Amino acid sequence: MAGGRGRGRGDGRNPATSSSSSSSRQRKARGSRDFGPETERSLEPQKEGPSSSSPSVSSKKPQMVTPVLPKSLDSPVQPRKPLNSPLMMAKQVHPPKSQYPLVQTVASIQISKPLNSSSASCGSGTVGSLDSPVQPWKSLDSPLMMAEQVQPPKSQDSLVQMVASMQLSKPLDSSSASTGSGAVGSDLGAAPFDICMGNSKGIFKLNRPLHEINKEKRLRERELSNSAAPPQRLRPGMVLLKNFLKLDDQVEIIKLCRELGVGTGGFYQPGYREGGKLSLRMMCLGKNWDPDSRSYGDIRPFDGAQPPQMPQELTKFVEEAIKASHDFLKQRGKGATEPSVELPQMSPDICIVNFYTTGGKLGLHQDKDEDESSLEKRLPVVSFSLGDTAEFLYGDDRDVDKASKIKLESGDVLIFGGQSRLIFHGVSGIMPKSAPLMVTDKANLRPGRLNLTFRQHKYEP
Ligand SMILES: O=C(O)CCC(=O)C(=O)O
Ligand SMILES: [Fe+2]
């Protein structure tokens, strides 16, 4: 794994603010798809919250306990759904002996609270699970920008308190009645997160008022007229293909991700053993990428699920995008670098699918956990944006102020390889209600943004 090769960033991390254990620190120093000092700082204890005085869980690992639960916690087990995998079912009840003592302990308590409210509005970025206040998104400067703070327990006693507060607190995710996630940390036992609202086939759609339909028509016209936007070479090895994915293709991709996302190995909200959580939902295809160890593997450590295979339909879109960027780079003429040198050809075998609700974001980081053979060849990352528009940052350092900003809209494909393969990049915010109506309407995508980043894990000549 790239992450283990000493490609440490050796920067930005302020040990004074860290609450991680030394082993965790070593892992992070090697970090690769490393979400930056924001993550680290975010693990500082918060003032608010039920166990704000508690030190890091990683400095004193809690043991497995079977606490006596308060009455309110004593409700029946709600297994993760769908329960099509006996393995998953078993893992729910007896989670694997993993590196997550906190997860194991929490899982052993069998959380069974309803995970979400019935509101249809999307408001991720909440810490919900531990009743700490919503962290408003401000900017990438915010120490809490990246991971949402969940206070680690001090001891077994405070762990019980923590679980109790999870039970009693506000819903984990206010975005939907059917939403939940099998997360590392606090929402084990939940139904998988559904990126689409209600019935994704649109069978139960309500009749909409005329003014809404007209607005949609206008927007649709604008969407179609926008589709002529030319590709851009943002820097060597970095190409933005504006509106590359046709609206129908976007709908197809969303539906495909939705299907995969509600099944085994589907969307979950990643977290760290220290308690921080990424403010997005994630699903991996082909291989699992584990945010905690920052490495790829065949199964997800927290529930033993195997990630879905990479669908051929998606591979096809990626190959078309690379071809389009080569065609575009060819126009630069004779003296220019050969397009396939500037942006090496790749055949994706892994993909990280992120769903950002409107409060979602992702700190500046580099993608460098892929196999050395792939990184050495600088095989590109190909990123699809669908749904709401993102403000995307990129630059040479993990420095928000120096980063360039672009908007990634639904249908855009961003490719960074060659000289740009290891750029720092991140998402500073999602623009609410910016998705093409046709896409949200046909796919029933919930408010937010779906992003797929394709990579080739291993280069085999
Ligand atoms: O959402 C995006 O545009 C970027 C995602 C990303 O950087 C990643 O998954 O590594
Ligand atoms: Fe990335």
Automatic annotation (TrEMBL):
Its cofactor is Fe(2+). Residues 347-458 form the Fe2OG dioxygenase domain. The keyword Glycosyltransferase does not apply. Keywords: Dioxygenase, Iron, Metal-binding, Oxidoreductase. One of its GO terms (biological process) is oxidative RNA demethylation. Binds 1 Fe(2+) ion per subunit. Residues 1-84 are annotated as: Disordered. InterPro entries: Alkb, AlkB-like, AlkB-like_sf, Oxoglu/Fe-dep_dioxygenase_dom. PROSITE patterns: FE2OG_OXY. GO terms for molecular function: broad specificity oxidative DNA demethylase activity; ferrous iron binding; oxidative RNA demethylase activity. Residues 31-47 have a biased composition (Basic and acidic residues). SUPFAM superfamilies: Clavaminate synthase-like. Fe cation binds at residues 365, 367, 425. The keyword Repressor does not apply. GO terms for cellular component: cytoplasm. Residues 50-62 have a biased composition (Low complexity). Belongs to the alkB family. This is Fe2OG dioxygenase domain-containing protein. It comes from Triticum aestivum. The gene is LOC123105617.
